[in-house]
């Protein structure tokens, strides 16, 4: 079996990380195995200790542990420190080092559907959790100046903005307020678990006020076409599904663990085929 890798989250059975990573190990001739571990929030500390004792070479971190895991790690790299969230952990000679590949993976995917530089767009981020943090701080680091954040709990959005080290013009909004002024935004980015399988009919907000040229992006990849993206399509808006971010953040994590670059195209094909579709 070789070295053990994995992902921890709650829920986790929907994850396709084992599919793409185990295929990449086989494709590159690496002796490794990747497993999905369901970890309740109350089990996080003991799980991290157990993974360390087992000598797991690396693992991904997903909802809801991306911020909560930080106190249980030995070190953070610069990106994870800036973002304040971790989605990838590397075991370096027994020390668990946290990284964040979410933001860079997301931006690499999103730019493929944009017609002008990302810095020239006004954006709305829905959500204020670990994924939102990774995307927001990376966008700000890349020079994006107009990024508002809406969340059910406005104080969490305010906290995210206050903690950002990079200059930008951001407002914290309620979901209701954001919905009313959707016409202000070029890109709408959905970062929460709303719409994730099995709750596939759920939407974080309605898009009826969005401008006709807006890009609607949802980081959920199962289902590929979330209820939010279906509404965006019906309104004639440009859509961007979560497969790209999932693949590119995963490819960056794989490279951190193995020092080898997997095929993003191969990973993308696996996810689309598994979900029974070819595009959003």
UniProtKB/TrEMBL annotation:
GO terms for molecular function: shikimate 3-dehydrogenase (NADP+) activity. InterPro entries: Aminoacid_DH-like_N_sf, NAD(P)-bd_dom_sf, SDH_C, Shikimate_DH, Shikimate_DH-bd_N, Shikimate_DH_fam, Shikm_DH/Glu-tRNA_Rdtase. Its EC number is 1.1.1.25. NADP(+) binds at residues 78, 127-131, 151-156, 219, 242. HAMAP family: Shikimate_DH_AroE (MF_00222). Involved in the biosynthesis of the chorismate, which leads to the biosynthesis of aromatic amino acids. Catalyzes the reversible NADPH linked reduction of 3-dehydroshikimate (DHSA) to yield shikimate (SA). This is Shikimate dehydrogenase (NADP(+)). It comes from Metabacillus rhizolycopersici.
């Amino acid at each position: 079996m070789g070295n053990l890798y994995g992902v921890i989250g709650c829920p986790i059975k929907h994850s396709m990380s084992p599919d793409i990573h185990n295929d990449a190990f086989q494709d590159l001739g690496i002796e490794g195995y990747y497993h999905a571990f369901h970890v309740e929030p109350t089990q996080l500390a003991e799980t991290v200790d157990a993974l360390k004792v087992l000598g797991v070479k690396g693992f991904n971190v997903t909802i809801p542990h991306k911020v909560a895991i930080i106190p249980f790690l030995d070190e953070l790299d610069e990106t994870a420190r800036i973002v304040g969230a971790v989605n990838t952990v590397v075991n370096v000679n027994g020390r668990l080092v946290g990284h964040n590949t979410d933001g860079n993976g997301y931006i690499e995917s999103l730019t493929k559907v944009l017609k002008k530089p990302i810095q020239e767009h006004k954006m709305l981020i829905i959500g204020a959790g670990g994924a939102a943090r990774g995307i927001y701080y990376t966008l700000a680091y890349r020079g994006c100046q107009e990024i508002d954040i809406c969340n059910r709990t406005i104080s969490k959005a305010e906290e995210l903005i206050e903690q950002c080290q990079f200059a930008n013009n951001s407002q914290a909004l309620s979901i209701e307020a954001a919905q009313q002024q959707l016409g202000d935004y070029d890109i709408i980015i959905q970062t929460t678990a709303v719409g994730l399988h099995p709750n596939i009919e759920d939407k974080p907000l309605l898009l009826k006020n969005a401008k006709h040229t807006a890009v609607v992006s949802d980081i959920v990849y199962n289902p590929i076409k979330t209820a939010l993206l279906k509404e965006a399509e019906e309104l004639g808006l440009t859509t961007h599904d979560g497969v790209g971010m999932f693949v590119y953040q995963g490819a960056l994590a794989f490279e951190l663990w193995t020092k080898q670059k997997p095929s993003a195209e191969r990973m993308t094909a696996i996810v689309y085929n598994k979900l029974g579709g070819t595009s959003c």
